[in-house]
Amino acid sequence: MSELLRCENLTKQYGKTAALNNISFTLESGKIVGLLGPNGSGKTTFIKILNGLLTPTSGAVYIEGERPGPSTKAKVAYLPDNVYLNAWMTVEQIVAYFADFYADFSTERAFEMLNRLGISPKQKLKALSKGNKEKVCLILVMSRQAKLYVLDEPIAGVDPAARDYVISTIINNYNPEASVLISTHLISDIEQVLDEVLFIRDGHLVLKKSVEDIRAEEGKSVDELFREVFKW
Amino acid sequence: MVKKLFKHEIHALWRLMIPIWCVLFGMSILGRFIQLFEQETMAYNIISGSAVFFYVVALLACIVCPFVFAITRFHRNLFSGEGYLTFTLPINTNQHILVKLVVALITELVTLVAAVVSVILVTFGELTVEIGKAIWYLFKLSVREWGAHMPFYLVEAVIGAILLLAVETLLFYACICIGQQSKKNRTLAAVGAYFGFYAIQQAIGTMFLLVGAEIDWKPLAAWAVEHPFATVHLSLCGGIVLAALVGGLFYYISHRLISRRLNLE
Q1: Do the chains contact at A97 and B92, CB–CB below 8 Å?
Q2: What is the ipTM of this complex?
Q3: What are the pLDDT digits (tens) for A46-58?
Q4: Domain interval for residue B94
Q5: To the nearest 10°, the Cα dihedral for A219, A223, A228, A232?
Q6: Contact: A54, B265; criterion CB under 8 Å
Q7: What is the pLDDT of residue B35?
């Protein structure tokens, strides 16, 4: 497996507060990785840096050896933790938008998933419920054959049935040669799909281990270990 | 990729402008229609007066809107929630800024043409024909007087006007980008940046006036009288270069802040 993501001494300061503090690690392709930590631990900051939405204070992140830029954005499919679509567009317009800009986007697959959910392509995005907007966002991201999927809190704020839908959409649609980085604090819901976990606390990387090793060495589930590590 | 970005940018801006252009032409046609029933009655005066009022409002809105929409589009598309999508497209900062600028300029020029056509439509009659003839006469006269210089003057003036529009748009882009560097009250910070640039502009203007007062302009004035064509060319080209430099500075500020200090929090 080749190196997909490399993070070198990554630091992000907001004033005097360090959201990320000297983080270094590498990720290989072909894995589903959980980026786990409590709220405010620096997960979203890391993901935004990875996507070029934030500039690091120091250090760097590399995707297939390149810093975030137009060429890495063509390889990374990003699902933010908020609804970011142009509200005035219709569903089919946003699908066309993605198809225009991402060479790896499959319009057919997007419409197939939308159809399964009963979302009309003619519907305006602003007319959709919050839950359906989030699902459209997920469908757009998972309709790409990206090399790295970065999903920021994809199951936060959705009901358990929708969580199952989100997780199955991710599992059934991601490019198997790619990696998926899922940020969440709802570990029990995604634990069964994870290959590896990264624990982040107060901007520090406190653990990077495979789920198999955690179970074998610690004799615990990821959820149990998380509760132990992040105990108040 | 630029072509696709251009297509989507045109769509995003023109979906707002097309209704305004339609209202303007609708008002022009209505005005023209009302003129067919011209009569000296109170009712007619009220109707035609109202039509003129609403037409002028539509005309003013039409002139102001492209600029306002272009600026708000720049802000919303880059720095609000939409920015999460915009900045994760495989497109570089130059392409983002340039496409937005070009589409804004095209929209402003199309609006200008629409406004002129609409005014002609409303006022078309003997007077309009006479004004048209007068403009044509002035054009022929200037061609006769200035000869081969005339087309160059025209080209230089048009380039200068477009550049001035671009500079004004880029000034707002730069102010928005500076405002985004603030932790709180980003709109206020952008307004502050605008007044800051205005103050700098005034200070530089005053400085040139003070320095200019100390210079003996007579030799230059004599040269200008001897070489009137070259003087006009130099003035127009000087204005173009100055506008390009100022616009370039605003572009650089926006580009630098977006590419090096983007912080979508």
Answers
A1: no
A2: 0.87
A3: 999 999 999 899 9
A4: 1-124
A5: -170
A6: yes
A7: 79
